[in-house]
Amino acid sequence: MFRVGIGTDRHRLVFGRKLIIGGVHVENAKGAYGHSDADVLAHAIIDALLGAAGMGDIGYHFPDNDPKWKDADSMALMAQSVGILRRAGFEIINIDASVHLEQPKLGALKIQMAKNVAETLNIPRNAVNIKAKTGEGCDSVGKGEAIEATAIAMVKFDEAILEAEVLKRGNKVTLEP
Ligand SMILES: [Zn+2]
């Protein structure tokens, strides 16, 4: 059974913060404000994955009021999300995502982001596509006040994965988030 999920995210751009996108440190005067490392692309992809599996959202699994996730590496949270999906019997098929940012231009960095995501999700490099869009000077993205990301994920439920996980863990796996 194939299922899809969508994820969106937005962070304010402020001085004095790093700009981390898909695990890549992008040189820029402003960075994304947030409790974790504020990796907007990672957050959108995590939400798309959890959504596809019907397992809630990033805020449920990694609450932003929990000191544990302060300045957290969002790619590590993505890796943990893979485990959450696997324990429920899901494998990840592909990811398509767009980053909305006025500047700087991401150019070849998109390739590095896609590589990071593919490695973290343990799927083929060509199963991850990252696009970049500007805000055309309009709204918060266009005025350089925010960065946004949109992602879609396809996953597949496989009884064999669920059974293997049950065997490995030695107890019943629940689909409750
Ligand atoms: Zn976020």
Description:
By secondary structure, the chain is α+β, with helices and mostly antiparallel strands. The protein has one domain (2-169): 2-C-methyl-D-erythritol 2,4-cyclodiphosphate synthase (60s Ribosomal Protein L30, Chain: A, 2-Layer Sandwich), CATH 3.30.1330. The chain has six helices and seven strands. The chain has a five-stranded mixed β-sheet with strand order 4-1-7-5-6. Strands 2-3 form a two-stranded antiparallel sheet. Helix 1 runs parallel beside helix 3 (74-87) and helix 3 (74-87) packs parallel to helix 4. The mean pLDDT is 94. The structure holds zinc ion. Zinc ion is lined by residues 9, 11, 34, 38, 40, 43.
List keywords for this structure.
177 residues; alpha+beta; 6 helices; 29% strand; 60s Ribosomal Protein L30, Chain: A; globular; binds zinc ion
Fold topology:
Elements: E1 2-15, E2 19-21, E3 24-26, E4 30-32, H1 40-53, H2 58-61, H3 74-87, E5 90-100, H4 109-121, E6 128-133, H5 139-142, E7 146-157, H6 159-169
Parallel strand pairs: 5-6
Antiparallel strand pairs: 1-4, 1-7, 2-3, 5-7
Helix pairs in contact: 1-3, 3-4
Bound molecules: zinc ion (ZN).
The pLDDT mean sits at: 94
Name the overall outline: globular
Proportion of residues in helical segments: 25-40%
Report how far the terminal alpha carbons are from each other: 19 Å
List the ions, cofactors and other small molecules found in this model. zinc ion
Structural class: alpha+beta
Question: Main beta sheet: strand number and arrangement?
Answer: 5 strands, mixed
